[in-house]
Design goal:
The protein is α+β, with helices and mostly antiparallel strands and 121 residues long. The chain is built from three helices and six strands, in the order βαββαβαββ. β2 and β3 form a beta hairpin. The chain starts with a strand and ends with a strand.
Length: 121
């Protein structure tokens, strides 16, 4: 299940609370997908047995498979969120990205965010 906004700070800051309220975060894997080509930011979670994306007003999508260069951010919110852009930039300095796939943030815990840079094998 997912909801998308423009990849702009104000839109992202409005998107997260509304998405979390709709789906709840306890016991869920939460991801964000950043499509730099389309300038979109999508927050998403896998569908559980009793979920009804349509009734929640959410669309359905899939995270792209393939190879990813990964990094880990550790810190307390909201300060850790300020590290995401620099962390992704550091990954991008290590390897050229596969521009056909979006960047991914995996919110492993409230204080741990994995950054995934799509790369070609």
């Amino acid at each position: 299940m997912q909801r998308t906004t423009a990849d702009e700070l104000a839109g992202i800051q409005r998107l997260w609370p509304s998405f979390e309220q709709l789906v709840g975060v306890r016991g869920r894997k939460i991801y964000a997908r950043i499509d730099e080509q389309r300038n979109t930011y999508t927050v998403c979670t896998p569908i559980k047995e009793n979920d009804s994306p349509d009734s929640l007003g959410l669309s359905v999508g899939t995270l792209a498979g393939g190879w990813y260069l990964r990094g880990l951010l550790v810190g307390e919110p909201p300060q850790v969120y300020g590290l995401i852009a620099d962390g992704m930039a550091e990954l991008q300095s290590m390897s050229p990205a596969d521009e056909l796939r979006p960047l991914v943030e995996f919110y492993r815990r409230h204080d741990r965010i994995e950054l995934w840079l799509p790369i070609r094998p």
